[in-house]
Amino acid sequence: MVELLRPEDTIKLAVQLESVRPVRVRYLIVVSTLSNKDESILLGMDFPSSDSEVCTIGLVLPVWSDTQVYLDGDGGFSVTSAEETRIFKPVSMQTMWSVLQALHGCCERAVKAAVIPGSGLEWALYYHQHIESDRFCLNEWEVMNDLESVRKDNRVSNETLIKEHLRDIMRTEDLDNLTSKMVHSALRTRIGFDMRPYKEYIDNEILVTMAQMDKPSKIFDYLFLGSEWNAANLEELQKNNVGYILNVTREIDNFFPESFTYMNIRVYDVEATDLLPHWTDTYKFINTARKSGQAVLVHCKMGVSRSGSTVIAYAMKQQRWPLDVALAYVRDRRSIVNPNEGFMKQLQTYNGILTASQQRHSTLWRRKSREQRQKSVHIQDGKEEGREDEEDEGLDDDDEEEEEDEDTESTDEQDDSAEEKVDSAEEHEVGSLRGHVTRYVTFCFC
């Protein structure tokens, strides 16, 4: 593919397209030239088969200042340039999102540079002269779908229903292999009515959802929750003042090890994965970023399950929130967060562990311990001495309550110091607490 380019030209993006014949492989290439980075062209490349190393050019489409891009409502998009229209259908929604971003960038640069026919893109002539694909391939590049006009009516309720199911589908499916046709088919099965009048709306909503998934979600001022895309976007990371990255995946490498402080939790997104034992370390790592004055990005593949669960666990401990509050808070800032069933059970267990731990270290727990010691004092030292100790103990309890109120209103630094002490104790206790959460909670409230 690269061998067909001039030495001074570069490939900005290459995406695979659907083909009428499964054996053939088609690619749409976005090409720019070093002599003028404001100029771009689209090349259609044809491979006879997936094993072939030889390809030919079947399409050349310059990007002028009047070039426009439209969704076709059927899982693809059309590009109109100098009264010439071509239709493209990427093999997945992720590739479609990527190429649309690239095309809009090319169009914006062409407008700013006033790239119009007759005043630029002379280098595109070279590729026009090297179109060598066979007639069958050329016909496929030149094909036009039938246009269909849909009357606009009051469809708010149906569109709301479609939107809800669409987001659920995209939250649970692998976007690398998910196509627009698969989404339409799944919606038709779930909802049960004809999707054809809503084709354009569905494709637009797919892209909106992709855009939301593409941006890291700000959970706290110092904590972002995102995806593999965000972890690979250096400019975005720097813009968000990210200095630490928590990678909760086995399959994704660290993209910028020389620029950021990384922590890796190498696990897969399956229900059998035991994520809970890592949450003490991830909590400390996130707080290290917070204390440094920099932000941390927590990510997995899509920012849905593994990283979402880890951020929920952090919020539960940092804010002393129960699971339902932390889950609602995180989802309010990133609606696609959806821990798998195994992680949800672990979050419920972790909720019990934190509750039991907080009770153990509460004033009530300490008071119960002192009352037990007080009984020993009565037996050993007599009633008079016991009464004096009881009065002192009452004063101590009042002091304890005042100190606890002050702790609630203390600065972040004081909270951090106290939290670190609890962390140290919890780290040794988490094994036994996990197996006996019910016993601890029952004892605390007896």
Portion in strands: 15-25%
Q: Identify low-pLDDT runs.
A: 146-154, 393-398, 400-415, 436-446
The name CATH uses for the topology of the largest domain is PH-domain like
Task: Output mean pLDDT.
Answer: 80
- Count helical runs: 15
Q: Give the SSE order as H and E letters.
A: EEEEEEEHHHHHHEEHHEEHEHHHHHH
Specify the structural class. Answer: alpha/beta
CATH class of the largest domain: Mainly Beta
Q: Helical residue percent?
A: 40-55%
CATH superfamily of the largest domain: Pleckstrin-homology domain (PH domain)/Phosphotyrosine-binding domain (PTB)
Strand order of the largest sheet: 8-9-12-10-11
Shape: elongated
What summary fits the major beta sheet?
Answer: 5 strands, mixed
* Count of folded domains: 4
Give the number of DSSP strands.
12
Write the CATH architecture name of the largest domain.
Roll
**How far is the first residue's CA from the last residue's CA?**
74 Å
Over all CA atoms, what is the radius of gyration? 30 Å
